[in-house]
Amino acid sequence: MIFYNGINLETGGNAWFTKLVKNAKKTENKDYYAVSNGVDVIYLEGQNEKGKEDPHAWLNLENGIIYAKNIAKRLIEKDPKNKETYEKNLKAYTAKLETLDKEAKAKFNNIPAEKKMIVTSEGCFKYFSKAYGVPSAYIWEINTEEEGTPDQIKTLVEKLRKTKVPSLFVESSVDDRPMKTVSKDTKIPIYAKIFTDSIAEKGEKGDSYYDMMKWNLDKIAEGLSK
């Protein structure tokens, strides 16, 4: 059984996932499943068509709960004799995510509006922004061949000079040099590395979905409270 995100993450670009399952003669909803079914999709800026979706839905904990429910549903279908165990685990896990979600919303509600902006390298925090009321800004919108160009950096620097944003953030999965340039030019410090496209190495903080989200929420709230 294979689970994949969907929302054009694995099937966009060079469509590596589509080629993989086709070559392996796998069938969707029999051998592999999208965990994002039921998510309210957000599109890239200025776009509203198939293939232009922002795939980073997991950065909203409410969507993480949808993912968990979809996974549990498929596991029960494949392994019905253990239905009770899957349902018990799902209930406990979603309760943890719901508590973390409520705590995060309370934290961000207490941050002054002029400080509320999460600045990252890739513009992958649209779902996060909508969920927690924190606008986002970025160097490039989505990982492509053009990441951290002089024009992209200049545009962000000019935007930030008009704000009172206290901290910047850089993702663990990207080159941090463009954000270091933004930090140098704006004199706004990089507060922390955060997780977007991957979790931490096993044994490190952020090595599960829950721990990754807790780390992100804590660090972003701390950085914007400076």
TrEMBL record:
GO terms for molecular function: metal ion binding. Gene3D superfamilies: Nitrogenase molybdenum iron protein domain. The keyword Signal applies. Its main location: other. The keyword Membrane does not apply. Keywords: Coiled coil, Lipoprotein, Metal-binding, Palmitate, Signal, Transport. GO terms for biological process: cell adhesion; metal ion transport. It holds the Pfam family ZnuA. InterPro entries: AdhesinB (IPR006129), Bact_metal-bind_prot9 (IPR050492), ZnuA-like (IPR006127). It is found in: Cell envelope. Residues 83-110 form a coiled coil. Transmembrane segments: none annotated. GO terms for cellular component: cell envelope. CDD domains: PsaA. PANTHER family: HIGH-AFFINITY ZINC UPTAKE SYSTEM PROTEIN ZNUA-RELATED (PTHR42953), METAL-BINDING PROTEIN HI_0362-RELATED (PTHR42953:SF1). This is Manganese ABC transporter substrate-binding lipoprotein.
